[in-house]
Amino acid sequence: MDPRVAGSRPTSPGGIIEWRAMLRPLALVILCSLLSACMKAPDPEIGLRQTEAQNEPAPATKPTVVLPALNGWQETATTLEFQVGRWDLPGGGVATISWLGPSKDSIAMNLDRWLGQWQTENGTPAQDGRIEPDADGNFPFTFVRVAGILKETRQVGGGEARADWMLLGAIVDAPGGPLYVKAVGPEADLGEQTEAFRAAVRAIQVNR
What we know:
Strand content: 25-35%
Shape: globular
Number of strands: 10
CATH class of the domain at 64-207: Alpha Beta
Radius of gyration: 38 Å
C-alpha cells in the first residue's frame, strides 16, 4: 500500500517555484507597509527652522574705510573693537571713525552723546554748534560742529576738562551702516581744518 495519504497531491518542483513567485510581490507589499508604519512623520518645526536659517541674512562685516589725510593727523592703531580708523591730532586731539553695525537706530543716541560731552564756562550745555546735512560727496552725511569745554576726556587720555576745544563730526550714511567720524582737539588747531574736514568726509571711501 502506498504510504502516502490517500487524496494527497504530490508537490512538484515546478509548483514550489510557482508559489515562490507568487509570494515575492506579497512580501514586498508587507515590507513596505511595515517600513511606512515605522517611519516618523517629518517634524514641521524642523522644516520651519531650516527655512528660517536659509532666509537669515549673512552677518554684517566691519567695513574698510579710507579717509583722505588731513594736515598734522597721524594715523595710529585703533583701540576699540568698533573703530575702523584712528588718528592723533595736534595739541593732544584725537580723531576716530566708528562703525556700530548696519542699524541706524544708534544715530540719535550717538548725536546726543556727542553734544552732551560739551559745556560752557558756567556749566550749561555748549551752545556754539552747528548741525547740518551735506550731500555733496560720495555719501550723504550730517555735519556736526561744537565748541566749548570738553568735559568727557577719556577719549583723549583722561584728566581735567579741556577748555577752548572743539568737535568736528560727521554721521555718514554709508552702505552697510552709518559711519561716525569724530575729531576733537584744541579749537585753535582744529577750527582751521573745518572745511578740510568736510572735504575729506565728502571723499570718504568704503570697501566691504
